[in-house]
């Protein structure tokens, strides 16, 4: 019998499926629920257990992980008679790894405390590749003791795992992460268009740029997307649009001015309005190409 905690995993999308499977590989007993039947079949094939509802998934769990798109989905699975808070056992640890507003995390922790359920907000960075390779960066908000208890589970999912402060802190750091990533992708996209219009060997240019101060994880991860115009979603524009709204609102609340972030947020919104919301966020290149006169 495994001495590892029993895990309920809610949300088996682009990130949730490989992450839950990495827990199974690490020896955890994982019961999952999501809305797509094929994703439940995938978890079962990997050695997990499929549940037909949130309530069924969480009933006997020691740890509950949620990985869903946004605040409304977190609230939908957490609250109500069929939700996590009404069906999880007292003493369970709820780890929300979605990217949502800091205030949603704070409110969830307060509501869960009344039910005897502990909460960590633990959003991640690293995209689909990081999820598959279990090398995610995990930024955590919540009590130190709960973080310490969850650390072994996090270590099966990521490499950089840091408690950033009280409830909501993980989401605040994730918002900053998404700001940096969006501005970085935009800068890379502008450089790509500039280089191509100048007649430079793009592959060679990106190689040498990656080895200098201009190098970044974004450039390393997205270089092939730019070179091949491959925008199959690892992280969709729709989700980055949501995240730029989170950071914009949070910055306004605390009085931080984000001039470059505001411009990129509008460029992301424009790309989405042009029908590219389902593409990878590296498709910001398409927006720069359009502005530069290309038909894409």
What does this structure look like?
This protein has helices spanning 16-25, 37-45, 54-58, 71-78, 84-87, 102-113, 127-133, 144-155, 169-197, 202-210, 217-228, 237-254, 259-276, 284-291, and strands at 7-10, 30-33, 49-50, 63-66, 93-96, 118-121, 124-125, 136-141, 158-165. It is of the alpha/beta class. A six-stranded parallel sheet has the order 3-2-1-4-5-6, with helices on both faces.
What portion of residues belong to β-strands? 5-15%
Secondary structure tally, helices: 14
The SSE order reads EHEHEHEHHEHEEHEHEHHHHHH
- Strand numbers in spatial order across the main sheet: 3-2-1-4-5-6
Shape: globular
Structural class: alpha/beta
Overall number of strands: 9
Question: How would a textbook summarize the main sheet?
Answer: 6 strands, parallel
The oligomeric state is single chain
How many angstroms separate the termini?
56 Å
**Average pLDDT value?**
97
- Low-confidence blocks of residues: none
**Rg on CA atoms, Å:** 20 Å
Helix content: 40-55%
Q: In summary, what is this structure?
A:
Helices cover 54% and strands 13% of the residues.
What are the main properties of this structure?
13% strand, three-stranded mixed beta sheet, globular, 14 helices, alpha/beta, six-stranded parallel beta sheet, 296 residues, single chain
Topology:
Layout: E1 7-10, H1 16-25, E2 30-33, H2 37-45, E3 49-50, H3 54-58, E4 63-66, H4 71-78, H5 84-87, E5 93-96, H6 102-113, E6 118-121, E7 124-125, H7 127-133, E8 136-141, H8 144-155, E9 158-165, H9 169-197, H10 202-210, H11 217-228, H12 237-254, H13 259-276, H14 284-291
Parallel strand pairs: 1-2, 1-4, 2-3, 4-5, 5-6, 8-9
Antiparallel strand pairs: 7-8
Helix pairs in contact: 9-11, 9-12, 9-13, 9-14, 10-11, 12-13
